[in-house]
Every structure is written in structure tokens, then in C-alpha cells.
Amino acid sequence: MKAAVFKEIGKPLVIEDVKDPQINQGEILLKVLATGLCHGDLHIIFGDWQTDIDVRTPMILGHEIVGEVMNDGKKVKKGDIVLVYNAFGCNKCKYCKKGYPQYCENVKILGVQENGGFAEYVKVSSEENLVKAHGNPIELAPLADAGLTAYSSVKDIEEGSNVALLGTGAVSMIALQILKSKNVRTTVVGRNYFKLSKMLELGADKAIIVKNSYSDDLSSKIGREKFDYIIDYVGSNDTLKDVLWMLDRMGELRIVGEFGGEFTVPEQLMVLRGLGIRGFLYGTKKDLEELLNIFYEKKIKTLAVPYKLYEINNAINDLLSERIIGRAVIIP
Ligand SMILES: [Zn+2]
Ligand SMILES: [Zn+2]
């Protein structure tokens, strides 16, 4: 089969013929229909991960996968269209038992520790991780990671809250739409004029373009306004700096992006205003099922931008140079 193989840090992926995945008893073979390109893939390609993630080479990346089932399982049948819930946990630890395999110490992710979706076929070790879906696979693909992460980061935010979203990537764009469907006031903050315009079109109440630093530009534009939640979909030194000062009493900073930023925490401000800080990684399988329903109700668009597998390095360059408004989706 054709696949885009990650061979060396910092180098383009190599499109080549590789052996088809061989499945054993209990495993499912998927014909890949579409796989989203995530900033996480770029972090792997450029060797950015500082903690917890170790990627072997050669590896087929691509963790946001929609496929067609090629062999009957117990719950899925040949021909079913499925999204991959891409956190394969040990099923024994406390995180797995609570339904949060993404935090399992032995978690496996297709496209990170095992071969993923930038190929014609992918092997799935457990059908428990497949969620049946219907519709256009290109539009479905971003739900499997960007959409799920967006949903888990905002699902419990109450109607009437005032929320700032930092960053204008696909996760932020989908989160915005979920918040708008719940009547939440939103301010989006980013550096890219075109992406901010798109977010206004998607219903953002206010867009703030960053020219200097996130905190300076945000604080100068909002005056005395404070947020119940600030959700950082970037996670850089720049987005995190001084951000806690813009939270209202009992407000929460949610960190989703993984650009490796660090920041100092004004301890007394935290205590006196009762602030919280929380990280969000991916979501649960139940979240993915709930998200699919929101998608079927047409409350969100996934903003897929399709590329062919042989164009994947162009997609990577376009993502790097901020030319993609929405989610690049790779079609084998
Ligand atoms: Zn991802
Ligand atoms: Zn586990």
C-alpha cells in the first residue's frame, strides 16, 4: 500500500510502498478514507515533544482517522464507516477504568506509537475504539481529534459565560461553534487576520488581532472586562504570559495547545480570586459520541481542507505557514 512515512526528524515525509498491515484475531483492518493533519503531527515531525512522547522511526503518522471496516468484528461489520477513538489504553489502570485512556501510562495512539492513517490501510487492535458514523468522510475526519479535543475543553461551560479563546486553529474554531450553540459570549484572539475573520463569520462576538504579545493586546482591548474561562489553544510562552490577570473571580484557565510554553503563576491572585488552571488532552469515547450528535444536528462545521496523500508535504508546509483556515485532511 501507499503510505507517507516519517523517517527522520525535520525532513519531509516519504511517500512509498510499504507492506499492508496484517491483522490477527480480534483486530480490525480499516481502509483509510480520510485522516486529518494535526499540529501534533508537526510537533512529531520537528521533534518538539519535550515530555512523555517518544516516537520511533520509521512510523506512519496520522492520528485523526476515518475508515471503512474491511473485516467483520463483533460490533462492527465490513463496510461500516468508523471514526477511530484514538487512545488505546491498558483497560486496567485507574484512568482507563474511569474512561480516560488518554491519560493511561501505557496508552497507544495510532499515528504516534503505532502506524497511523497517512496510508491506504490501518490496523486497529480493538474494535472498542471504533465509533460508527455516517456522512462525508472528509468532513468527519476532524471530529476524531480536533473536534473531540474542542468538545472536551468546552462541554461543561455554562450558558451565559464569558470566554476568551486564544488561537485560531481548527480546535479553537470547532470549540467556538460549540460555545455559540450554547449561548456563550466569545472573544477570539489570534495573529492571523484571515482566521479571525473566519471566526467572526462562525459567530465569535469579538475578535482581537495580536500585533505584539497576546497579553498586552488582549488587556489593552478588553479594558476592565474579565473572563470566566480563558482557553489557550496555543500553549506558548506568549499566549500564557500574564493571562491569569484577565480571569474573573473563580475563573479558569484551560490549556489545550501544546507549544511548550511556561509561565509564572501569581500565587496571591490565584488564592484571592479563587482561580483554577487545568490541562485538557483529547477527550473520552463518550465525548466523541456526543460530539457526533452535535455534528449531525449541523451545529458545527469541521472546516476540512482536503489534500491527496501525495500532497501531504504541501499540506504540512501550508499548515506551518498558516495558510490553512480549518483542518487539512489527507485522502489516500
Ligand atoms: Zn492531534
Ligand atoms: Zn490504562
* Helix fraction by DSSP (H/I, runs of at least 4): 25-40%
CATH architecture tag of the largest domain: Alpha-Beta Complex
Largest sheet: 7 strands, mixed
Distance between the termini: 10 Å
**Which strand-content bin applies to the residues?**
15-25%
- If you average the pLDDT, what whole number results? 96
Task: Describe the global form.
Answer: globular
State Rg: 20 Å
CATH class of the largest domain: Alpha Beta
Helical element count?
A: 11
- How many domains make up the 3D coordinates? 2
| SSE string | EEEHEEEHEEHHEHEHEHEHEHEHEHE
Low-confidence stretches: none
Bound molecules: zinc ion
Structural class: alpha/beta
CATH H-level name of the largest domain... which superfamily?
Answer: Medium-chain alcohol dehydrogenases, catalytic domain
Give the number of DSSP strands: 16
Q: Which fold name fills CATH's third level, the topology of the largest domain?
A: Quinone Oxidoreductase, Chain A, domain 1
Provide a descriptive summary of the structure in words.
With 332 residues, the protein is of the alpha/beta class. The chain folds into 2 domains: 2-145 and 282-331, Alpha-Beta Complex (Quinone Oxidoreductase, Chain A, domain 1), CATH 3.90.180; 148-279, Rossmann fold (3-Layer(aba) Sandwich), CATH 3.40.50.720. The protein is built from 11 helices and 16 strands. It has helices at 39-45, 94-97, 137-140, 146-154, 170-181, 193-201, 214-222, 237-240, 267-273, 285-296, 312-320; strands at residues 2-6, 14-17, 28-36, 59-60, 64-69, 81-84, 121-124, 130-132, 162-166, 185-190, 206-209, 227-232, 247-255, 276-279, 304-308, 327-331. The strands form 3 sheets. Strands 3, 5, 6, 7, 8, 15 and 16 form a 7-stranded mixed beta sheet that branches. It has a 6-stranded parallel beta sheet with strand order 11-10-9-12-13-14, with helices on both faces. Strand 12, helix 8 and strand 13 (247-255) form a beta-alpha-beta unit. Helix 4 packs across helix 5. The longest helix has 12 residues, at 170-181. One zinc ion binds at residues 89-90, 92-93, 95-96, 101, 104, 106.
